[in-house]
Amino acid sequence: MPDLPTPQDATEAALFSECWDAVLSYADLCTSGSLTAHQLATEAFTLGMREVRAAGTVPARGPGRRAARLPMIPELLTAVRNTAAGWEADGDGHKLDPDLRLWLNSGQAARYTGPPLQRPVALRGLRDMQDADASLLWLAEVEALPLPTVARRLGLDPATVAEELDQVRGLFRDRCHRAHVDTPMDAQCRSYARLLDAVTRSPAADTPGDLSRHLATCVQCAEAAACLRLHGGGLPAALAGGVVGWGGLAYLERRRRAAEVRLGVGRPGAAEADGGDPKEKEGRSRVLRNGLLAAAVLLSVLALGVSMMPFGDSGGSGASGGSGDDKAVAASDDRQPVVDPTASGTAATAADPTPSRTPSTTPSPTASKGKSDRKNPDPEPQGTSAATTGSGGPSRTTDPAPTCRVDYNLDSQWTDGFQATLTVTTGKALSGWQVAWSFRDGQQVGQMWDATVHQNGSRVTATAADYNKSVAAHGTLTFGFLASWQGKNRVPYAFTLNGAACATS
Predict the structure, then answer these.
(1) Angle between the 161-182 and 147-154 helix axes, to the nearest 10 degrees?
(2) Residuewise pLDDT in 10s, the chain (505 residues)
(3) C-alpha–C-alpha distance, residues 41 and 77, integer Å
(4) Alpha helices in 71-120, H assignment, sequence order
(5) Phi–psi pair at 147, nearest 5 degrees
(6) Top-level CATH class of 404-504?
(7) Which region holds residue 47: left if phi is over 0, alpha if psi is between -120 and 50, else beta?
(8) Which residue in 149, 140, 130 sits closest to 70, CA to CA?
(9) Where are the domains of the chain?
(10) 112 in Cβ contact with 123 (< 8 Å)
(11) First to last CA, the chain
């Protein structure tokens, strides 16, 4: 397995770091385990960077020669797909995902490497754009990065990057329309080309019934329609599916989740929308929450200490009718309705260190005489007896509150399989994580995304990927999986985060 190429300067080192996450994410989709995913990603990254360096082009905006290649990230993803195809051809296909192997040996894979005019419209349209324009479109639509981050990476003005993105979307549409028209097609597809262009320009335009039926049966025209229709939110899927090929939609979902995890919020871009102010507000609110929590803990400790203090005067009889030694009174009062089984008098403790019920049923004569004038038993000596033991009775012991919460969502289920998503909220910052749980009915995980899976019997462990192992305090981590089931498919139990038990929603 080749070593990763060495960055030539600081700029290339930052670029390597940004692109490696994307390459490893797609390689993990293409393989059957984390080790083979890393091997595939390393080979593909080395191959892709060699080709990029050989091309010798630097992203730049403005007039000039159109790029002869894809932007950096889709170029490296193409290298992953080509490397996987090489594994299949060399007899190493058993390392790949079974569905990918079927795809590689079908006519669908040939479309991405065959004659240029037969390739997907999105691939041709993106390749036909200026490199910086294509990079802006890919980073914003597929990688789901917030626009201020995209502007900083490409050297654009954050105040005008949204405007430029709208223009780039229009350029992509024009390139795709021209690519569709240039595609060899039969007479029926040719007759719908102009109508397809017209109905996809406006969100208010209705699609005629005959065109709708044609799009349901013609792959080329349906792909073109997805690229030409900029409204409706279908452009990212059209780009990912048309450029990456197999696993494009799954890769798109992974990148969106990875962007949310990096930002530590529920929606990409929310953390940077106001130039850092939300982070400052979040920090202040976190300090306030921590202060309130500390105050609550202190008050609880004080209240517990007060409740465990002995009651009554140190000499004579007080309002409670106690003697001079409340500890002996509490341990020897046979009329007390409920007595802590670990409580005992001083003499009983010295004779038998093991907690027993004997002191409660056989009081000493001295203690009985001290309590003989008391008519109404006072429940307060219960606290006194617990304090007497020095270690606290079982009733005082409480389990620590969980620092994480798991939301298990069954997305869909069919005859012998299902898809589920786990969202874990952590109370503290993480630099790496493992989420584990146990199945009740023998379910078996077959594929997992945004984490690597290991299953031993009913116990399943999901380990963070390289791109989402860091989670902010009070942040969330999310991953999903496909699994099989028979008979029953009950919700799993015994969720843990890095070995600590989690509460469930």
Answers:
(1) 80
(2) 455 666 666 666 767 777 888 999 999 999 988 888 989 999 999 888 888 777 764 444 444 444 457 888 999 999 999 999 999 999 999 999 999 999 999 888 988 988 888 899 999 999 999 989 999 999 999 998 889 989 988 899 999 999 999 999 999 999 999 999 999 988 989 998 889 988 898 887 888 889 899 999 898 899 899 999 888 788 999 999 999 999 999 999 988 888 777 665 444 444 444 444 444 445 555 555 566 666 666 666 566 665 566 554 444 444 344 444 444 334 444 444 444 444 444 433 434 444 444 444 444 444 444 444 444 444 444 444 444 444 444 545 555 678 899 999 998 888 888 889 999 999 999 999 999 999 999 999 988 888 899 999 999 999 998 888 899 999 999 998 889 998 999 999 999 999 999 999 8
(3) 9
(4) 72-89, 98-104, 107-113
(5) -60, -40
(6) mainly beta
(7) alpha
(8) 130
(9) 10-266, 404-504
(10) yes
(11) 44
Strands 404-413 and 503-504 come out as parallel
Is the separation of the CB atoms in 323 and 308 below 8 Å?
no
The two three-digit tokens of residue 497, written as one number: 């985060």
Sheet holding 459-464, edge to edge: 451-456, 459-464, 434-438, 493-497, 500-501
Dist CA 337 CA 437 (whole Å)? 43
Query: How many other C-beta atoms lie within 10 A of the C-beta of residue 404?
Result: 21
Contact (Cβ atoms closer than 8 angstroms) between residue 457 and residue 467: no
Residues 6+ positions from 23 with CB-CB distance below 8 Å:
41, 44, 45, 48, 76, 77, 79, 80
| Residue 235 token pair | 């452009």
16/28 Cα distance (integer angstroms): 18
Helix and strand totals (H; E) in the chain: 20, 10
Amino acid at 209: G
> Are 120 and 109 within 8 A, CB to CB?
no
32-35 contacts at long range (C-beta below 8 A, 24 or more positions apart): 32/95, 32/96, 32/97, 33/452, 34/452, 34/463
DSSP letters spanning 433-474:
-EEEEE-SS--EEEEEESEEEEEETTEEEEEE-TTS--B-TT
- Tokens standing for 169? 């979307």
Q: Residue 184 has what DSSP assignment?
A: -
Q: What residues contact 145, with CB distance under 8 A and at least 6 apart?
A: 139, 153, 259, 268
DSSP H/E element including 191 = helix 187-199
Supply 490's token pair.
Answer: 């009950």
